[in-house]
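hey
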């Protein structure tokens, strides 16, 4: 099963990464590997754009009907069959398909996991043996690497973690900070513009409110202890996510922030 996964996802993604690197090296682009990671992530994000769009639109529709769902739950809390019947009517009335957001997520996961694995294994290559291992899965001879690539960005090693570089380069702390902030902005945008009032026992609402802070902090922490190359990939994903969220459904929960910025100008 693992070999099939590599054949379908890991090997193609590795070949595309190396192809970008060779192309950028050919034109003497600085930080060729770092730029290749950004380009690869951008291409994959564009390929996943239609699936993510479906997921975002479904989530937005579900947020809009949340007050109606809460009212139905209160009205039919003693009759589960009636509640399910009324919920189906509500979905149909508003043209919402709750399952529509699941399939896009399932399609994205293997690709995202493969991209993570590829970057995790390539940014830390510092020997000819490692380069030869990459060469062994490349489809064409002209893609083969004949030297150890420069895995740095602004003198920071892509294969090193901010944690390991903190003593020698304190500025590296900006990597997890930026990663956490971008994730926080995206998480805020994914929330409804007007918070839905619900009972204190509403687990979903409580979880959403807590995850707004917990998830960005968690991502920031992981970007502190994991290779910088992975943060580069994650931040590219976050920036595309912010752009896509804004184009499809607007700033969402971040609208009050945007309004304040406009007022100060």
């Amino acid at each position: 099963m693992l070999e099939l996964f590599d054949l379908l996802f890991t090997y193609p993604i590795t070949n595309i990464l190396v192809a970008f690197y060779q192309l950028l090296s050919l034109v003497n682009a600085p930080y060729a590997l770092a730029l290749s990671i950004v380009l690869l992530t951008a291409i994959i994000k564009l390929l996943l754009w239609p699936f993510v769009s479906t997921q975002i639109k479904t989530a937005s529709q579900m947020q809009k009907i949340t007050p109606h769902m809460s009212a139905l739950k209160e009205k039919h809390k003693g009759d589960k069959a009636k509640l399910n019947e009324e919920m189906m009517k509500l979905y149909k009335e508003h043209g919402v398909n709750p399952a529509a957001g699941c399939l896009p997520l399932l399609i994205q996961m293997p690709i995202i996991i493969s991209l993570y694995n590829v970057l995790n294994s390539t940014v830390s290559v510092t020997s000819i043996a490692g380069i030869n291992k990459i060469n062994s899965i490349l489809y064409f001879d002209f893609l083969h690497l004949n030297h150890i690539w420069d895995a740095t960005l602004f003198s920071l090693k892509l294969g090193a973690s901010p944690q390991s570089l903190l003593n020698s380069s304190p500025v590296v702390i900006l990597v997890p900070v930026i990663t956490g902030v971008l994730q926080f902005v995206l998480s805020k945008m994914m929330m409804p513009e007007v918070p839905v009032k619900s009972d204190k026992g509403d687990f979903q609402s409580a979880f959403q409110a807590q995850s707004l802070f917990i998830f960005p902090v968690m991502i920031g922490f992981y970007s502190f202890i994991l290779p910088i190359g992975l943060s580069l990939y994650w931040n590219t994903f976050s920036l595309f996510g912010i752009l896509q969220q804004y184009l499809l459904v607007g700033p969402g929960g971040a609208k009050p922030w945007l309004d304040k910025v406009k007022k100060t100008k």
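Residues 68 and 206 are 18 Å apart (CA to CA). Strands lie at 152-153, 156-157.
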